[in-house]
Task: inverse folding
């Protein structure tokens, strides 16, 4: 097998490792394995409607929005074509596959399933990006950068939506599905715009500023991790407390004589 193809296919590894880490987070009361993999698989397929929607939007606004090598075009591509479309497609997987299923019975499930959908999407996107590189050196650079930034980013951005939707569902509080979606789009779009504006900055001779902006995706990834970690800890604490209450109720009910 060609070395470039091998490296491209190995782009699936970061997403698979991240899925294992998410599973570890949910090890107390894990979700069904079959359902987790179904969400990840459909998340992979969600790349197709994301591409189709992106092409349709691009065609619709072609006369209004400037090309991506301009600042306006880069911003539009980052927040609408990438963040807006992709986050909508990924969270739609969760809503379609598991939202109404009885297995979705805890707050942490929102993060688990949403992250799975995001990682399924990231797996396919990562392989495509690596296939698009013409040199082995370029592939390795992209592999490392995306393994630590874009791949976990997809999990965390969509995980935020799942976390907020689950809090609203079980507790009637928080940003909810729409608010979580807007939060994810803000993170995802800001991440992408720092990358997409590299081209217009270099074209206008501001290469040093473009280089400095590389710190933005790194900072946003760290911040997203901290935000989602807080959400996960809160969800787990609330789920543990509710599970304990249910256990006590079940024990009390079991001790009562039959009526």
Result:
């Amino acid at each position: 097998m060609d070395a470039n193809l091998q490296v491209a296919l190995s782009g699936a590894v970061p997403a698979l490792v991240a899925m294992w880490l998410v599973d570890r987070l949910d090890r107390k009361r894990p979700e069904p394995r079959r359902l987790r993999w179904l969400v990840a698989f459909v998340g992979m397929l969600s790349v197709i409607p994301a591409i189709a929607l992106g092409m349709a939007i691009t065609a619709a606004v072609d006369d209004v929005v400037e090309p991506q090598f301009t600042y306006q075009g880069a911003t539009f591509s980052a927040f609408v074509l990438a963040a807006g479309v992709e986050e909508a497609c990924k969270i739609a997987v969760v809503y379609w596959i598991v939202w109404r299923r009885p297995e979705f019975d805890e707050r942490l499930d929102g993060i688990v399933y949403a992250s799975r959908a995001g990682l399924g999407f990231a797996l396919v996107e990562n392989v495509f990006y690596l296939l698009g590189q013409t040199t082995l050196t370029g592939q390795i650079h992209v592999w490392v950068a995306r393994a630590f930034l874009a791949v976990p980013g997809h999990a965390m951005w969509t995980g935020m939506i799942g976390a907020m939707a689950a809090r609203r569902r079980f507790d009637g509080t928080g940003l909810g599905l729409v608010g979580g979606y807007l939060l994810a789009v803000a993170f995802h779009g800001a991440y992408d715009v720092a990358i997409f504006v590299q081209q217009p900055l270099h074209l206008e001779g501001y290469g040093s500023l473009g280089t400095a902006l590389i710190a933005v995706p790194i900072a946003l990834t760290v911040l997203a991790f901290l935000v989602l970690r807080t959400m996960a800890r809160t969800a787990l604490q609330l789920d543990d407390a509710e599970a304990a209450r249910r256990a006590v109720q079940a024990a009390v009910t079991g001790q009562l004589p039959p009526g």
Remarks:
- The first helix runs from residue 3 to 9.
- Residues 145 and 151 are 9 Å apart (CA to CA).
- The two ends are 70 Å apart (CA to CA).
- The chain has one domain: 3-255.
